[in-house]
C-alpha cells in the first residue's frame, strides 16, 4: 500500500505530497533505533545475564519451576539468557511487530524454539490461563523498558499491570531495583539552554539591552526531558553545589504504583552559589543484594574502571523553575515530582516540614511564555551565544543606514531587534519580545509566507537589506536552512536593485572523521553474549538501505568525540545574492587522509558568510591538537554520513589514503545526494 503525506519541504519550503511506502515509518524506526547500541552495551548485557542467572538459581533453590516473563523482548536476548540459565519456560512479549518477527527468527536460530514463546502484544493485552497467551503467571520478571529518565518509556504502568495480572506474588525481578540520583549544580552553560540572557547592543546612541519579558523569567518551561552525554561536559562548565543524593528508588519485585507522586530530600549545599540545575542519572541493581550494579553515573562520580559508552541511556539535565541562591551549609529541600512518564524538580528553602508540604503541587510544568515552545534547548543556547551575536552585530552595523528598509527571514530570531537598534526602520515577528522591549511600533510583523508577500505588507517600500541567521525550526539537517535562499528568491521583486543580503552566501563543508564511539550505533553486533543476533543486524542494514539511498543523519557532535582524518573541505557554495538557479549544484573530488585512523564517515556542516570578512560556523570550531580532536559548535547538529564499511562492519585499513566523493544538490527538491568511496 502507498499513502500520500503532505509536508512542507524543509529546504525549498514548497508544499509537496510524498508517496510514502507503508514500510517507510517502520524502516525509519528500525534504521534509527537504539537496538544496535543496546546490543553493543557489553556492561548492560553482562550484568543482565548475571542477574538473570542469579534469579533462576534462587527460584530453582526453592524447588520451583522457573517461569519467566520478559516484557519488551526486542531481539529476544534476555529470554535467551534466561533459557540458557536453566529457566523452564519464557514468555517473551514484544509490541512492535517487526521486532516480534525478528525475535521469533532469532530464538529459532539459536535453538530455543521449545523454551521461548514470542507474543506480539503490548503487555497489558496479554492474557493468562489455560487458553491464554500464558499458561500461568510467571515467577521471574525480566524487563529492559528504561530510558535516560528511567520512566519515560512507560516502565511504571507496565510494571504496575504486570504485578496485578501477569506475575506471582513474591516474584524475582531482574533488575531488582532502580535508584535515581541527583546533584545540584550551578552552570551558566546549561542555564543558557533554558532562559534568555540580556543581549547588550552597542548602538550609536549608547548601549541598549534586550531583555526577556517577566513572563519568560518566571516561566517553568517544558517538561520534556533534556538528556545529554554529560560525560562530554567539562568540569569547568559547572560548579557542584551538593553531594550526590538518592532521590527515589523503585523495587520491581513488589507491586509498583505509577500514579503521580513526589519525593523530597534535604540537601546541605557544599558550596554557596546559584542553584540552577539538577543533574540526574540512575542505576539498576540486577539482584537484591546490590552486587550486580549497572550505573549511568558521570565521570566525576564513578570509578573510572568500568566505563561503558552508550547512547541509549545517558544523563538528565533538569532546570529549576528559577535560579535560587543557596548558602554553604544552609539546608534546602529538593522535591522531585513525577507523573507516569516524566520527572521535574523544585527547590525550597528549609522551613517547617509541614509548611513545605503544602507547597507541593504535582502538575507538570507548562510553558506560559511561548518561548520554550518556540525555542528548544540548543536554540536557547545559540541565542545566548554572545560571540555569535557579536558577529551578526558587526556585520549589520556595516550595512544598515538610517533609511534602510530591512526584512528579516528567520524563525524566532532576535535579528529584527538588533537591526532596529543598529539603525534600520522595519521588520518581522515575535510579539512577546517586542512588547517587553517597547518596539511594537518599530518592528512590523508580517504574517505571510515569503511567496505571498505583497507591496502593501511593505507599505510600498522596497527592501534594501534582507537578513536571516538563517534559522528555521523545520530544519533537521544543516542544509535545510538554505530555505533562506528560496525565501529570498520568492521576495526578489520586493528588493531594491542594490539590496544587501546578509548572509551573502553559505558554504557546505565536509571532513572525514574517526569517531571514538558513535560508530557503534550503526555497526552490526554479530554475536551478543554468545547469542547469534545477525538477523537483527541484517534487518537494520536492510532498513538503512531502504530506498537505496543512504542518508546523512543529524547528530550534535559536541557530545560525540571524533578525530579529523582529513582537512575540512568546502564542497558547495550557495550564493544568496543571486536567486536559486534552475540547475543542480554538484561537485566531485577527493580528500586526502592526513592521519591514521578508521574512516567511519563524513561530517558535513554549513558556514554562513555574513559579509566578505565575517563568517559563522555551525560545525567545526577548531581542530584542537595534532591528534585531530575536533571541537564542534555546541548549539547545532551536524550531518553524519556513515560509510558502508561501518554498516557492513568491514575491517578497515588504518593506512592513510584518500576518499573520493560526489555531492549533488538538487535545487528543485532541495535534497543533497552523496556518495563516497574509500
Ligand atoms: N529486551 C531487549 C530489548 C529492549 S528495548 C534487550 O534488552 O535487548 C525495549 C522493547 O520493549 C522495545 O522493543 C519496545 O517495543 C518494547 N516494549 C516496551 N514496552 C512494552 C510493553 N509494555 N509491552 C510489550 N513490549 C514493550
UniProtKB/TrEMBL annotation:
<keyword id="KW-0963">Cytoplasm</keyword>
<feature type="domain" description="Protein arginine N-methyltransferase">
    <location>
        <begin position="176"/>
        <end position="347"/>
    </location>
</feature>
<keyword id="KW-0677">Repeat</keyword>
<keyword id="KW-0489">Methyltransferase</keyword>
<dbReference type="Pfam" id="PF22528">
    <property type="entry name" value="PRMT_C"/>
</dbReference>
<comment type="function">
    <text>Arginine methyltransferase that can both catalyze the formation of omega-N monomethylarginine (MMA) and symmetrical dimethylarginine (sDMA), with a preference for the formation of MMA. Specifically mediates the symmetrical dimethylation of arginine residues in the small nuclear ribonucleoproteins Sm D1 (SNRPD1) and Sm D3 (SNRPD3); such methylation being required for the assembly and biogenesis of snRNP core particles. Specifically mediates the symmetric dimethylation of histone H4 'Arg-3' to form H4R3me2s.</text>
</comment>
<dbReference type="InterPro" id="IPR014644">
    <property type="entry name" value="MeTrfase_PRMT7"/>
</dbReference>
<dbReference type="InterPro" id="IPR025799">
    <property type="entry name" value="Arg_MeTrfase"/>
</dbReference>
<keyword id="KW-0805">Transcription regulation</keyword>
<dbReference type="GO" id="GO:0005737">
    <property type="term" value="C:cytoplasm"/>
</dbReference>
<dbReference type="GO" id="GO:0042054">
    <property type="term" value="F:histone methyltransferase activity"/>
</dbReference>
<keyword id="KW-0156">Chromatin regulator</keyword>
<dbReference type="InterPro" id="IPR055135">
    <property type="entry name" value="PRMT_dom"/>
</dbReference>
<dbReference type="GO" id="GO:0035241">
    <property type="term" value="F:protein-arginine omega-N monomethyltransferase activity"/>
</dbReference>
<dbReference type="InterPro" id="IPR029063">
    <property type="entry name" value="SAM-dependent_MTases_sf"/>
</dbReference>
<dbReference type="GO" id="GO:0032259">
    <property type="term" value="P:methylation"/>
</dbReference>
<dbReference type="GO" id="GO:0005634">
    <property type="term" value="C:nucleus"/>
</dbReference>
<keyword id="KW-0808">Transferase</keyword>
<keyword id="KW-0539">Nucleus</keyword>
<dbReference type="GO" id="GO:0030154">
    <property type="term" value="P:cell differentiation"/>
</dbReference>
<feature type="domain" description="Protein arginine N-methyltransferase">
    <location>
        <begin position="504"/>
        <end position="676"/>
    </location>
</feature>
<keyword id="KW-0221">Differentiation</keyword>
<dbReference type="Pfam" id="PF06325">
    <property type="entry name" value="PrmA"/>
</dbReference>
<keyword id="KW-0804">Transcription</keyword>
<protein>
    <recommendedName>
        <fullName>Protein arginine N-methyltransferase 7</fullName>
        <ecNumber>2.1.1.321</ecNumber>
    </recommendedName>
</protein>
<keyword id="KW-0949">S-adenosyl-L-methionine</keyword>
Amino acid at each position: 500500500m502507498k499513502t500520500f503525506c503532505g509536508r512542507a519541504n524543509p529546504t525549498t519550503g514548497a508544499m509537496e505530497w510524498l508517496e510514502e511506502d507503508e514500510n517507510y515509518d517502520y524502516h525509519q524506526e528500525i534504521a534509527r533505533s537504539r537496538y544496535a547500541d543496546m546490543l553493543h552495551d557489553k556492561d548492560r548485557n553482562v550484568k543482565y545475564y548475571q542477574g538473570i542467572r542469579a534469579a533462576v538459581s534462587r527460584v530453582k533453590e526453592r524447588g520451583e519451576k522457573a517461569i519467566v516473563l520478559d516484557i519488551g523482548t526486542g531481539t529476544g536476548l534476555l529470554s535467551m539468557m534466561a533459557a540458557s540459565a536453566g529457566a523452564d519456560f519464557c514468555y517473551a512479549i514484544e509490541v512492535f511487530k517487526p521486532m516480534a518477527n525478528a525475535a521469533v527468527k532469532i530464538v529459532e536460530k539459536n535453538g530455543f524454539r521449545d523454551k521461548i514463546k514470542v507474543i506480539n502484544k503490548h503487555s497489558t493485552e496479554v492474557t493468562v490461563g489455560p487458553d491464554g497467551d500464558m499458561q500461568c503467571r510467571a515467577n521471574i520478571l525480566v524487563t529492559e523498558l528504561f530510558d535516560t529518565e528511567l520512566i519515560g518509556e512507560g516502565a511504571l504502568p507496565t510494571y504496575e499491570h504486570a504485578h496485578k495480572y501477569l506475575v506471582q506474588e513474591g516474584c524475582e525481578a531482574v533488575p531488582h531495583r532502580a535508584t535515581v540520583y541527583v546533584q545540584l549544580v550551578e552552570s551558566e552553560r546549561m542555564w543558557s539552554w533554558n532562559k534568555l540572557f540580556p543581549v547588550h547592543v552597542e548602538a550609536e546612541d549608547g548601549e541598549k539591552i534586550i531583555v526577556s519579558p517577566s513572563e519568560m523569567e518566571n516561566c517553568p518551561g517544558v517538561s520534556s526531558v533534556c538528556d545529554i552525554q554529560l560525560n562530554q561536559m567539562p568540569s569547568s562548565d559547572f560548579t557542584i553545589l551538593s553531594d550526590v543524593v538518592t532521590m527515589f528508588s523503585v523495587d520491581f519485585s513488589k507491586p509498583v504504583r505509577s500514579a503521580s507522586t513526589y519525593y523530597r530530600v534535604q540537601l546541605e549545599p557544599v558550596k554557596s552559589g546559584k542553584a540552577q540545575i539538577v543533574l540526574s542519572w540512575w542505576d539498576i541493581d540486577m539482584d537484591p543484594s546490590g552486587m550486580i550494579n549497572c550505573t549511568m553515573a558521570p565521570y566525576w562520580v564513578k570509578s573510572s574502571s568500568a566505563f561503558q559508552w552508550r547512547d541509549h541511556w545517558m544523563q538528565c539535565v533538569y532546570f529549576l523553575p528559577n535560579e535560587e541562591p543557596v548558602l554553604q551549609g544552609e539546608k534546602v529541600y529538593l522535591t522531585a515530582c513525577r507523573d507516569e512518564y516524566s520527572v521535574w524538580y523544585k527547590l525550597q528553602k528549609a522551613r517547617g516540614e509541614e509548611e513545605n508540604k503544602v507547597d507541593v503541587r504535582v502538575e507538570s510544568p507548562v510553558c506560559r511564555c511561548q518561548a520554550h515552545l518556540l525555542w528548544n534547548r540548543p536554540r536557547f543556547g545559540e541565542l545566548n551565544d554572545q560571540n555569535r551575536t557579536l558577529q551578526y552585530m558587526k556585520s549589520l552595523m556595516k550595512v544598515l543606514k538610517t533609511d534602510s528598509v530591512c526584512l528579516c527571514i528567520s524563525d524566532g530570531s532576535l535579528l529584527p531587534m538588533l537591526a532596529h537598534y543598529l539603525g534600520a526602520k522595519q521588520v518581522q515577528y515575535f510579539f512577546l519580545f517586542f512588547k517587553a522591549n517597547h518596539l511594537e511600533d518599530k518592528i512590523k510583523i508580517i504574517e505571510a509566507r515569503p511567496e505571498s508577500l505583497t507591496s502593501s505588507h511593505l507599505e510600498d517600500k522596497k527592501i534594501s537589506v534582507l537578513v536571516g541567521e538563517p534559522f528555521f525550526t523545520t530544519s533537521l539537517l544543516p542544509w535545510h536552512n538554505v530555505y533562506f535562499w528560496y525565501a529570498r528568491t520568492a521576495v526578489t521583486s520586493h528588493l531594491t536593485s542594490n539590496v544587501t543580503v546578509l548572509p551573502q552566501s553559505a558554504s557546505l563543508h565536509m571532513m572525514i572523521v574517526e569517531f571514538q564511539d558513535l560508530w557503534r550505533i550503526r555497526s552490526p553486533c554479530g554475536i551478543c553474549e554468545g547469542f547469534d543476533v545477525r538477523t537483527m543486524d541484517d534487518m537494520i542494514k536492510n532498513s538503512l538501505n531502504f530506498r537505496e539511498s543512504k542518508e546523512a543523519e543529524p547528530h550534535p557532535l559536541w557530545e560525540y568525540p571524533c578525530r579529523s582524518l582529513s582537512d575540512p573541505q568546502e564542497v558547495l557554495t550557495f550564493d544568496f545574492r543571486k536567486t536559486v538557479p534552475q540547475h543542480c549544484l554538484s561537485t566531485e573530488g577527493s580528500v586526502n587522509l592526513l592521519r591514521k585512523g578508521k574512516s567511519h564517515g563524513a561530517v558535513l556542516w554549513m558556514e554562513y558568510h555574513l559579509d566578505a570578512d565575517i563568517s559563522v560556523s555551525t560545525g567545526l570550531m577548531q581542530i584542537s591538537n595534532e591528534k585531530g580532536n575536533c571541537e564542534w559548535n555546541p548549539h547545532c547538529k551536524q550531518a553524519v554520513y556513515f560509510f558502508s564499511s561501518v554498516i557492513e562492519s568491514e575491517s578497515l585499513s588504518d593506512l592513510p589514503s584518500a576518499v573520493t566523493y560526489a555531492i549533488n544538490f538538487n535545487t528543485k527538491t532541495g535534497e543533497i545526494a552523496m556518495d563516497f568511496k574509500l
